[in-house]
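Ticket 4471: requesting a sanity check on a complex prediction with zinc ion. Repro inputs:
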Amino acid sequence: MQIRCRCSKCESKFKADEVSAGLKIACPRCGGVVMVPPMAQAIEDPTTTAIPRVASHTPPISAGPPDEIAPPGNPWPLRVGLAALGLVAIAAALFVVYLVNRPAPPTAIELRWPLADRKDAFLEISGNSIDLVKRDPLLVHVAPGPHRVTIRRKGFEPVIWNFTLIKGEQKHLTPEWQAVP
Ligand SMILES: [Zn+2]
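Returned structure tokens:
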């Protein structure tokens, strides 16, 4: 660090090393005696020396590192937010793909026909005999269009439905048996 000096004899300005602070030196121009200001005054010099000394001696600034640690921490909420946003975007994209590719609901006829009532029974849908598999509900996939469903059960009047199914429609049928007189 250097201290600014001014020779009172020849008015020349020059800088002296800080080790000369408070001492008398010879003016490099005229050789006159120049009193180098003490460091305290040099600090008050608003030019070169003041700012670095204040910066290096002020505790609040040395307490700065915690503040500088905080900024690297601050990006975390931002990163988490961006990550969450990315996941939401991916989920939305996958949902759109699912909506586009999901299989259309089957066109089907469901018979709400309890297993206990299927003994010695017969089911025919549009001329095709259907095995009364032992599962509940009894769901039979069919093509869209007009259908005729006939069910027969020993000791009861046959039950017949006629209807038309559109693509993806499911018809639910519940037989109401009437005993043969
Ligand atoms: Zn001088």
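Notes from triage: The helical segments are 39-44, 50-57, 59-62, 64-73, 75-101. Leaving this open until the requester confirms.
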